[in-house]
Structures are given as structure tokens and as C-alpha cells.
Design goal:
heterodimer, A: six-stranded mixed beta sheet, four-stranded antiparallel beta sheet, globular, B: mainly beta
Chain lengths: 112, 115
């Protein structure tokens, strides 16, 4: 079956620190991989995606590389800001295309 | 900016009651999916509607049902509410199935509390 496992939080970092949130997946076939972000009181927003092995998704300074050999899609940012405080969800969609499989989310708090 | 709107934003119901949640999809999108997000958890897929037909269902009992209308808006109905149904219910719209070039846009959700 399909599933996503991501690093448990909460994560607290100082401003300008380096961020890594680990994500690994199990899937049949070749899924597309996503990172979504959820700010307090809001729905999910797409942060970045990658649709095939070795693709790198990037947006707003965040990056993640689709690693088929390690079935991973780790999220990184070189220098976090207070405004990055949110919950981050790793997700996959398989080739049926009718649903996302989400991880449990990682809460990030960035302190000045 | 997402054009997916959900109503109501918050709702309190009593155990055993029925509830209807509504979702207006982004203009031009013909596919709507519903997710349940329990506190501290990731969203769980309930079902998807594509051009008014159910197109996939997650591991939810039949008391969770839905509709999609000709304008592609959608309803989620839950009968015989249980305390564990308390969650944030998210609607996502897309143009066709999720895939390499299809992005899903999420609404802000409806917070349902069952007491």
C-alpha cells in the first residue's frame, strides 16, 4: 500500500538556522511527491512538488529532491524565517490520481 | 490564490445528529476531494467526485456520503455523528485527476465539533 512517514515534531529553530524535515514513502509504482504547508487557521497550500525520480522541487527557498533509491523526499531550507512557522505535510499521489496520502505533519516554530 | 470556499467555517453538533458541509470548487475545476484531518494528524482521504460521479473512496463508513452538482460544487454529508467525527474537514478541487501536471487547491476547511 501507499504511505508516508515524516519526522515527528515539534521542531523549534532560531531565525536563519538550517531546516531539514525528513520524509520517506512507500508506494506501488512511481508516485508524485509533494510538500504542503498549513498556517494556523488555514487550509493546505502547495509548497513544492516533484513528479519523477531525481527531480528537485523548489519554492520560497525550500527544496526537496525525489530520491527513488532511498524512497525519500526530505524538505530543506538554508535559512528559516519567523514567517516559516507552520505545519508541514509530506504527501504522495499514486498513478490512480484520485487521492493524496499524507504524513502526520511536522510543526515548525521559528523564534527570533 | 485559492478559489475554493467551504461553509460553514465552524460547526457544533450533537452525537447522533446529521451534518452537511459544502464546498465550492475553483472556477473550471471538475474534481472535488474531501479529507478529514483529526487534531494533530495528517488529512485522510474520504472520497473524490469527478464530473458528479464518485471516483474513489477511502476507508470511511457509508454514513459518510457526498454529492457533486452540475456546477461542480460538492457536499459532504455525515449521518449518525460520533464523537470521533470531530475534525477539520478539507475540500480540495482540481482539474481532473491528480497527476504530474495537476495541482489541487484546498479550502480553509470546516471545523466540526461533535459533543
Amino acid at each position: 500500500g501507499n504511505s508516508v512517514t515524516q519526522m515527528e515534531g515539534p521542531v523549534t529553530l532560531s531565525e536563519e538556522a538550517f531546516l531539514t524535515i525528513n520524509c520517506t514513502y512507500t508506494a506501488t509504482g512511481y508516485p508524485s511527491l509533494f510538500w504542503y504547508v498549513q498556517y494556523p487557521g488555514e487550509g493546505l497550500q502547495l509548497l513544492l512538488k516533484a513528479t519523477k525520480a531525481d527531480d528537485k522541487g523548489s519554492n520560497k527557498g525550500f527544496e526537496a529532491t525525489y530520491r527513488k533509491e532511498t524512497t525519500s523526499f526530505h524538505l530543506e531550507k538554508g535559512s528559516v524565517q519567523v514567517s516559516d512557522s507552520a505545519v508541514y505535510f509530506c504527501a504522495l499521489s499514486d498513478r490512480t490520481g484520485n487521492q493524496f496520502y499524507f504524513g502526520t505533519g511536522t510543526s515548525l516554530t521559528v523564534i527570533p | 490564490e485559492t478559489g475554493v470556499t467551504q461553509s460553514p467555517t465552524h460547526l457544533i453538533k450533537t452525537r447522533g445528529q446529521q451534518v452537511t458541509l459544502r464546498c465550492s470548487s475553483q472556477s473550471g475545476h471538475n474534481t472535488v476531494s474531501w479529507y478529514q484531518q483529526a487534531l494533530g494528524q495528517g488529512p485522510q482521504f474520504i472520497f473524490q467526485y469527478y464530473r458528479e460521479e464518485e471516483n474513489g473512496r477511502g476507508n470511511f463508513p457509508p454514513r459518510f456520503s457526498g454529492l457533486q452538482f452540475p456546477n461542480y460544487s460538492s457536499e459532504l454529508n455525515v449521518n449518525a455523528l460520533e464523537l470521533d467525527d470531530s475534525a477539520l474537514y478539507l475540500c480540495a478541487s482540481s482539474l481532473g485527476r491528480l497527476g504530474m501536471n495537476t495541482e489541487a487547491f484546498f479550502g480553509q476547511g470546516t471545523r466540526l465539533t461533535v459533543v
